[in-house]
Amino acid sequence: MLSLIALQASVQVYDVWSFMTDILDRPEEYGFLNNRCIGEGCVWWDGYHPRSAFHQLLAADIQTYISEYFWL
């Protein structure tokens, strides 16, 4: 049974690094103030973690990527 399920599986690789660096290179085009500030309107929530606005953009980009392979 497991082998039948595996035959129907599909794996896609999403390049989150390129998406993140694009935002960091051109933050204003994505609605952020700049790529260094922390807080409201910025990419960063703290010194390490992006804000939820980044995650929303990421989710939308992943959905676009996935829709090329699956019918959503």
What order do the SSEs take from the amino end to the carboxyl end, as H and E? HHH
Span of the ends, CA to CA: 26 Å
Number of domains: 1
Low-confidence stretches: none
Instruction: Please count the helical segments.
Output: 3
C-alpha Rg (nearest Å):
16 Å
How many strand elements?
0
Shape: elongated
The assigned structural class equals: mainly alpha
- Average pLDDT, rounded to a whole number, is 88
- Please describe the biggest sheet, giving its number of strands, its sense, and whether it closes into a barrel: none
Helix content: 40-55%
Protein model, in words:
The chain has one domain. It contains 3 helices and no strands. The protein has helices spanning 2-7, 16-25, 52-67. 44% of the residues lie in helices and 0% in strands. The model has no long low-confidence stretch (mean pLDDT 88). It is mainly alpha-helical.
Summarize the structure.
The protein is about 45% helix and about 0% strand. It has about 70 residues and is mainly α.
Note the main attributes of this structure:
mainly alpha; 72 residues
Describe the secondary structure blueprint for this structure.
Blueprint: H1 2-7, H2 16-25, H3 52-67
GO molecular function, one term: hydrolase activity
Organism: Aspergillus sclerotialis
Keywords: Hydrolase
